[in-house]
Specification:
Blueprint: H1 2-6, E1 17-20, H2 27-57, H3 64-93, E2 97-99, H4 100-133, H5 138-141, H6 144-170, E3 178-179, H7 186-190, H8 198-232, H9 236-268, H10 274-299, H11 301-315
Parallel strand pairs: 1-3
Antiparallel strand pairs: 1-2
Length: about 325
């Protein structure tokens, strides 16, 4: 009797193919949504690739702040491409199937994006803190070695935490194949497990909250010090420099946090339709990657100047 009680489920065997529920729409509704996704993705690609190219080509922009922007642009492309690659075939053909390995890779990319944005923005906040609060020591502190170390650390922490999370995930026996989300994530796959997953759930929550809180505290500390330097000391030159160099960074961080907050709010409300809830759940991975390059172009004078100069040279007759 004990042996029969222990075998209470029959796990699926490989190859496992998931069906991603996605948006509940008709094929006719899918075509205009595909066009909308294609336009958004084209803007996302053009904007982020332009930022990366401008910084790579112009030697004057080979500075810590701009190199970190390159890392953020790569991160945006990683997250945006992962979700768009799932959405566009869904809208165009209605195909919602995805293999097990591809699903795990998709979850890895999505979670890497969500955490790497926070760690890279934290490194950028530290750079702004040193540049504004310790300008005389900036070049001795933010050396090439320190820059590379910060960027590598920002990615390494995320890879390590997400890698452990997914290793715990792949060990779980699965009894279902319907992923009730727009894309494959750690939690959406864990809901298909045959057994309770308390360790996975606790670890996932600890990773998100500990990393988010740590990044917020570092960014908050950096801006408190910047405000003290610029406002309390009433240094007008430093104040105008701070507004110019920090405006884009702070705007991007607030935009990302608002997008994440919308997810929590929508999932706490019961009267929202499934499609609305799913749409709000992908805003954090579509809106920031699309808008961030525009913010760079408006707020960062060096990038804006190079882009204008490039287009003038392209359009003007030789």
């Amino acid at each position: 009797m004990a042996e029969m009680e222990n075998v209470s489920y029959v796990p699926l065997k490989q190859p496992i193919v998931f069906t991603v529920e996605g948006f509940i729409i008709t094929r006719q509704q899918g075509y205009p949504l595909f066009v909308a996704c294609l336009i958004v993705y084209a803007v996302m690609l053009l904007g982020n690739i332009t930022v990366i190219t401008v910084i790579a080509v112009d030697a004057k922009l080979h500075k810590p702040m701009y190199m970190m922007m390159c890392n953020l642009a790569v991160c945006d492309l990683l997250g945006g491409t992962t979700v768009m690659a799932q959405l566009m075939p869904h809208f165009l053909t209605g195909n919602n199937t995805i293999g097990y390995t591809a699903a795990i890779f998709q979850a890895f990319c999505v979670h890497t994006y969500s955490l790497a944005v926070a760690t890279i923005l934290t490194a950028m906040a530290y750079d702004r803190y040193v540049a504004i609060c310790q300008p005389l020591h900036y070049h001795s502190i933010m050396t090439t070695r320190r820059l590379v170390s910060l960027c590598c650390l920002a990615w390494f922490i995320v890879f390590l935490l997400i890698g452990i999370l997914l290793i715990l995930n792949v060990q779980m026996p699965l009894c279902g194949t319907l992923v009730k989300h727009v894309y494959c994530s750690d939690q959406s796959i864990l809901r298909l497990a045959c057994i309770p997953t308390p360790i996975n759930n606790i670890y996932g929550l600890c990773v998100v909250w500990s990393l988010s809180t740590s990044c917020f505290l570092v960014i908050a500390f950096s801006y408190v010090k910047i405000i003290q330097t610029c406002v309390i000391n009433q240094e007008k030159d430093s104040r105008s420099k701070a507004i110019q160099t920090c405006a884009s960074h702070l705007t991007i961080y607030i935009l990302f946090e608002i997008s994440v907050l919308i997810i929590s709010v929508t999932y706490s409300l019961k009267d929202i339709s499934p499609n609305t809830r799913k749409f709000c759940a992908i805003l954090f991975i579509i809106v920031p990657p699309t808008v961030n390059p525009i913010i760079y172009g408006i707020a960062m004078k060096d990038i804006r100047t190079y882009i204008v100069k490039f287009f003038k040279s392209t359009v003007s007759p030789k």
